[in-house]
């Protein structure tokens, strides 16, 4: 009976959590219906609310915004809007910081989270998965002796929080694993292990060969 009960939980718990998250997201996006004039609100026209209508409206607004911003006139409007925000104290600092992070993460030309890495953290002999985010910059470079890379070490099971580290390039091992696969590995706390490729050989980010996954 215990085995059957646990088997049933393994089936229903992921489904229940998935449904709960979707309902939460759709419910939050449905709040965008308040942007519509009362005359064209679904409740006014049909006499009742339509679940998910706000989610569709939100997606349409995002798509239309991207469509407008992709042309010359839209780019000029975005530039003027950013100049206006830049003149507002406090708001400009928050907006610029968030924009820099979002541009790095979501831009198709960005290099953030493009490589899954293996590093020793938080001490020697203990390994964890990290993601390459770039190279140290600014005044930090003057205080680092040698070639370093910037990495992000996610926490589990919530990878949206983690630690930003600057580690020697020679101490980082590049994994033959996609970022999506590595994220699944982290989120599952190591339960969903990625398949082993027969010809996969871990290589370091540093120049040179490897031996047993370590730089030579």
Tell me what you see in this structure:
The chain has 216 residues and is α+β, with helices and mostly antiparallel strands. The chain folds into two domains: 2-106, no CATH class; 116-215, no CATH class. It has helices spanning 2-29, 42-46, 53-69, 72-86, 91-106, 179-187, and strands spanning 116-120, 127-134, 148-154, 162-168, 173-174, 203-204, 210-211, 214-215. Strands 4-3-2-1-5-6 form a six-stranded antiparallel beta sheet, with helices on one face. A two-stranded antiparallel ribbon has the order 7-8. Helix 1 (2-29) packs across helix 3. The longest helix has 28 residues, at 2-29. The radius of gyration is 24 Å and the shape is flat.
Features:
single chain, 216 residues, 6-stranded antiparallel sheet, two-stranded antiparallel ribbon, 6 helices, 8 strands, 42% helix
Topology, please?
Layout: H1 2-29, H2 42-46, H3 53-69, H4 72-86, H5 91-106, E1 116-120, E2 127-134, E3 148-154, E4 162-168, E5 173-174, H6 179-187, E6 203-204, E7 210-211, E8 214-215
Antiparallel strand pairs: 1-2, 1-5, 2-3, 3-4, 5-6, 7-8
Helix pairs in contact: 1-3
Major beta-sheet overview: 6 strands, antiparallel
What is the global morphology? flat
Number of helices: 6
> What percentage of amino acids are in beta strands?
15-25%
Number of domains: 2
- Determine the mean pLDDT: 79
- H/E element sequence: HHHHHEEEEEHEEE
**SS-based structural class?**
alpha+beta
Number of strands: 8
**Helix fraction?**
40-55%
Query: Termini distance?
Result: 54 Å
């Amino acid at each position: 009976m215990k085995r059957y009960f646990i088997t049933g939980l393994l089936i229903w718990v992921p489904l229940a959590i998935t449904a709960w998250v979707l309902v939460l997201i759709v419910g939050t996006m449905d709040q965008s219906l308040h942007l519509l004039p009362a005359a064209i609100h679904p409740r006014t026209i049909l006499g009742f609310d339509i679940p998910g209508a706000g989610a569709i409206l939100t997606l349409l607004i995002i798509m239309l915004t991207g469509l407008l911003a992709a042309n010359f006139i839209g780019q000029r409007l975005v530039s003027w809007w950013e100049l206006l925000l830049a003149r507002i104290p406090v708001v400009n600092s928050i907006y610029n910081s968030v924009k820099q992070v979002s541009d790095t993460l979501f831009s198709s030309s960005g290099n953030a989270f493009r490589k899954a890495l293996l590093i020793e953290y938080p001490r020697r002999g203990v390994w964890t998965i990290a993601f390459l985010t770039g190279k140290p910059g600014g005044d930090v470079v003057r205080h680092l002796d040698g070639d370093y890379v910037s990495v992000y070490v996610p926490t589990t099971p919530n990878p949206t929080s983690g630690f930003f580290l600057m580690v020697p390039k020679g101490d980082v091992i590049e994994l033959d694993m996609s970022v999506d696969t590595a994220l699944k590995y982290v989120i599952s706390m190591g339960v969903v292990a990625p398949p082993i490729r027969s010809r996969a050989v871990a290589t370091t980010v540093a120049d040179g060969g490897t031996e047993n996954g370590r730089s030579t």
